[in-house]
Write the structure tokens for this entry.
Amino acid sequence: MKLTTNIGTTEENDIRFQEMQNGQPISDQNLDHLRAWIAETYPDAGSRLPSERDLAKTLELSRPELRKSLAALEIEGRIIRQVGRGTFTAEPPSMTQTAASLAALAERTAPHDAMIARLSLEPELARMAALHASPFQVKTMQDLGARIRASRSWADYEELDFELHDLIAKSAGNVLLYELHKIMNAVRQVVVWRKLTSDIKRPSPDYHSFDEHDAIITAIASRDCSAAKDNMRAHLQATLDTLTT
Ligand SMILES: [Zn+2]
């Protein structure tokens, strides 16, 4: 297999490093070839790769370029490097696995527990969103509020409601809390909505959540932290009440 050698300028390497740091797979011809070669030659996880010297020779790759690609694969979770033992193939974390673990988590979560989890996190996220949301994020929330009101089916409503709560969490500006919220939001989508599905085709015009959402958005737009927090709590409490009655 003939692979082109491209060491890259320092600037290019900086960009690659940033891309890797952002968790995005880097796009690179050598890396693509190495990834494909490993997948074909060592389809099973736990296989030991040849030494760097042999690998570079086999792939007709310079050592620095090989090392760079190996580093990228390590960040992607496709290989594991163990000092003194060598480099081994790993099972890449796939979307299917992520979806499967979320589904398993949803199975173990009672609807009431999902709502309690939301009540413990989302009011605080709304408070932080009132502090940190950008004007564009506020505008998007307002648009979403209007679109939620115009939902033509429960499926539309659920999707837009999911988007709004996701955006509020993101606007809070804390990566770790946002990631926790994403897990919670994904689980609650399965757990809570499965229980709330009703015979009515779409939310009625006086559905309680419409005003509740608007109250949260208005508080965030006017940078009123405590109102944002209280209004989010009231919104979630109303949904919890629907569950328990
Ligand atoms: Zn909502």
